[in-house]
Amino acid sequence: MIFVETRNSKLRTRTGTELRTLDFLLIFDPMKTQPLFIITGEQGAGKTTTLLEVADLLKKHNVNFRGFYAKGDWRENKRSGFSVVDLNTGVKELLCQDSKANGFQKIGRFYFNPETIKFGESILLMKNKPDKELIVIDEIGLFELDGQVWADVLKQLLNNNLNPLLITVRKKFVEDVIENFNLRNVLVFNFQLQPTEIVQKILKELSSE
Q1: Is 15 exposed, middle or buried (0-12, 13-18, 19+ CB in 10 A)?
Q2: What's the distance, CA 122 to chain centroid?
Q3: What is the pLDDT of residues 62-79, one digit of tens each?
Q4: Which of 10, 31, 164, 166 is surrounded by the most beta carbons within 10 Å?
């Protein structure tokens, strides 16, 4: 495995070791796997905003993708839940909320709608779609590290090894996500990078497939 790094942002591993840079970090493995791109940053810093800007630019470059982003819901200046929004159709479904609801499953401090998890999985595993279509997930984090929410569908996508992936991950979870899901052929981008620069690197990787 080879680590290639540039610039000077830092990433702390589970053991406390700091990896210099995340403007970007490349983890390469000689085994042939589909590329996986991670946009990272602190909680609430702007990962999803950067992701949406990147998706818009990829669309202009005629890159086909499917997936969803997480839209935060707020009440009295406090995060009250999240909705999942289909990147292609704009269809929005409530994923979780901080109050009890019939049929919802409590995970952490939120109550999750299992029907919305199925909705998200159906987008990611959509049949009759071409291989190599970029799959987008916002986001992978603590719940998935505990085997919840999007963990199973992410494992299935990785095992299938048919599609490149673009995901968001909170900075403090990046190393754990890479280790837990045994990720290879990974490019990690700081969300503060210009979207045009991120897109250029994604296009370069996709064109080499």
Answers
A1: exposed
A2: 16
A3: 999 999 999 998 888 888
A4: 166
CB 92 within 8 A of CB 84: yes
Q: How many other C-beta atoms can be found within 10 angstroms of the C-beta atom of residue 14?
A: 11
Q: Which CATH number characterizes residue 55's domain?
A: 3.40.50.300
Extract the tokens encoding 61.
Answer: 């470059």
Whole-number Å distance between alpha carbons of 149 and 30: 30
**SS3 of 69, please?**
strand
Amino acid of residue 180: N
pLDDT at 97: 97
Helices (H) and strands (E) in the chain, counts: 6, 13
The number of folded domains in the chain is: 1
DSSP E strand stretches across the chain: 2-6, 10-12, 18-20, 24-28, 36-41, 65-75, 78-86, 92-97, 105-107, 110-112, 134-137, 165-170, 186-190
Full domain range(s) for residue 107: 2-207
Given this model, what pLDDT does residue 74 score? Answer: 85
